[in-house]
Specification:
Mean pLDDT: 83
Helix content: 10-25%
Strand content: 25-35%
Strand order of the largest sheet: 1-2-3-4
Low-confidence stretches: 1-17, 64-68
Number of strands: 30
Radius of gyration: 25 Å
Structural class: alpha+beta
């Protein structure tokens, strides 16, 4: 409970806490002086309110003797002050608070207000949902028995979908440690410097470099990063302040800086601010969602099909979601997807040449081109975002999507997984042109999904990791051979998986303590330099020494 008070009042780093404490104390003293000067003109009611606030502040700053006493002191605060404190707590601390004091929780599986009185914790959770434009609904979803538990889970899941402490490319890995520092390892070359280290201009373009263990990126040590995204050739990082940084190959404007230049070290995309979600696609495409739910995309604007080695004159629009001039093949800076301006986008995923977007209301849109379709029942391309009706007909709220080479996954709020596209990795073992629920996961509640190329993975509420698809013999599935349906990674039995990133050559899985388990192609895993006796692949999930990443666990 002491930690809850600390998180409520001083939610910054230790240095910032000290500065914030000095500032807050000075502000309180200034307010006290003003009240003292105005006191002769106070009415009895105003004087009583001032006394109550003074007592409330005293209760906040005095160390409580126990959790129960701390909770009771919170209840003694004026409603306005209590609301401010609860608004500063993250979901986990709200969950602890609700579990500590029944009066703060005041929860029952009964209809919502105004037909019943609700507690401060539920009030705060409803406020957060409404601030994001979410419809809480008039009744609990099927299977839910508690409004507080349901709203806590929703709040945490929505935050979890926007933040990723791990990202992988074909031959590199990216991590965020406990302090939010950016680290990289693996291989790159000067044409696609994905390791985020400066490149000597005198070095031959074909020379490769390799970093064994995860190493902090020198130019980003003064930034707190909360999410990373990566393709094989370019990378994005999102700071706690909502700034987006990009580096790697700049073909087709994939880095968003207004040119096609390659950048070896992360550079801020100046036209973006207050961003909450990022995505990097394998076909030189990028996307970002800001705090107002606006979707921005940039990069490759058209995909040219080849037949028998000759270029087809027909150019297919790729994954940007808006129309461009017929001769334009790239969007060099972030541009808003106006077709979704009436919807608040929550998260986004990019496949080979198509994009999926999920709105806060739970609708899933797709646009671009996929050889086996975008979930609409045909293989037609879609220039503008189009809602996937097969998912709308389920009457479920979708909270996350994942996209691979020619397949896609969509996850509902209640943990149901739908897949479509190529048979190899959609979870069905057969091609599907429209989304179908993954039969192998019926009866299990999925909380996280990820996909890349011909591979997919899911993490259940039991914190088990399941993978499926075709890793091409690189070992990124954690079990041998082609696996067409979700299969638990047996060698991670007993490990509580909290975050995951999969690629055709390697996979990273972080547990609840931030330990990263790696398997697949050795050179990309961060396990250090390999010896002559080591094989090229690591088939068994192995923890990366000394590394701890930041993870968001369910409350």
């Amino acid at each position: 409970m002491n930690r809850i008070f600390n998180a409520a009042i001083l939610p910054w780093s230790q240095h910032q806490r000290n500065m914030a404490g000095v500032t807050a104390l000075a502000a309180l003293r200034a307010a006290a002086r003003e009240c003292q000067l105005a006191a002769p003109s106070f009415t009895d009611e105003q004087a009583a309110q001032g006394l109550a606030i003074t007592g409330g502040l005293r209760a906040v700053f005095l160390p409580p003797a126990s959790s129960i006493q701390a909770a009771s002191r919170l209840l003694q605060l004026p409603v306005e002050l209590l609301s401010v404190i609860l608004s500063r707590l993250d979901t986990r601390d709200l969950a602890r608070l609700a579990a500590t004091c029944r009066s703060l929780c005041r929860d029952a599986p009964t209809p919502p207000p105004p037909t019943r009185q609700i507690g401060p914790v539920e009030t705060e959770l409803r406020r957060r949902a409404e601030a994001r434009g979410l419809d809480v609904g008039s009744s609990l979803p099927e299977g839910a028995t508690s409004w507080v538990a349901f709203l806590l889970k929703r709040d945490r899941r929505d935050a979890q979908m926007r933040q990723a402490p791990l990202a992988v490319g074909e031959e590199h890995s990216i991590f965020l440690d406990k302090e939010g520092r950016l680290l990289t390892c693996g291989r790159d070359h000067t044409r696609a410097p994905t390791l985020a280290y400066a490149v000597d201009p005198a070095v031959n373009f074909d020379v490769r470099r390799e970093i064994g263990p995860p190493t902090p990126v020198p130019s980003m040590q003064d930034r707190c990063i909360v999410s990373v995204a990566s393709s094989d050739s370019h990378c994005l990082a999102l700071s706690a302040e909502g700034e987006v940084y990009s580096w790697g190959a700049g073909l087709y404007g994939a880095l968003g800086h207004g040119d096609e230049d390659t950048r070896a070290v992360p550079c801020r995309i100046e036209s973006l601010g207050c961003i909450e979600c990022i995505a990097a696609g394998t076909n030189w495409t990028s996307a970002a969602v800001d705090e107002d739910g606006r979707l921005f995309t940039w990069g490759r604007a058209r995909l040219v099909e080849e037949e028998d080695g000759e270029l087809d004159e027909f150019k297919l629009n790729s994954a940007l979601g808006y129309r461009l001039d017929a001769e334009t093949d790239s969007q060099l800076t972030p541009k808003q997807v106006d077709a979704l301006s009436q919807d608040r986008v929550a998260c986004v995923a990019i496949g080979e040449s198509f994009t999926l977007a999920v709105t806060d209301a739970g609708a899933v849109f797709s646009f671009g081109f996929s050889r086996v379709g975008l979930g609409h029942g045909s293989s037609d391309s879609e220039v503008l975002p189009r809602r996937i009706e097969a998912l709308a007909q389920t009457r479920r709220r979708f909270v996350a999507v994942a996209a691979g080479f020619c397949h896609a996954l969509a996850l509902t709020e209640m943990g149901e997984l739908y897949g479509w596209g190529d048979a190899c990795a959609n979870g069905h073992g057969r091609e599907e042109r429209t989304p179908q629920r993954v039969a192998a996961l019926i009866g299990q509640c999925v909380k996280l999904v990820n996909a890349r190329y011909l591979c997919s993975c899911a993490v259940t509420e039991k914190n088990e990791l399941l993978t499926w698809g075709n890793s091409g013999g690189e070992g990124s599935l954690g079990h041998e051979g082609l696996q067409l349906t979700p299969t638990r990674v047996a060698r991670l039995s007993g490990v509580e998986v909290a975050a995951v990133a999969i690629d055709r050559k390697h996979t990273l899985a972080a547990d609840a303590d931030g330990v990263v388990w790696a398997f697949g192609q050795r050179s990309s895993l961060g396990l250090g330099a390999s010896g002559p006796e080591d094989s090229a692949a690591v088939p068994t999930p192995t923890p990366i020494p000394t590394l701890r990443v930041r993870v968001l666990n369910s409350p």
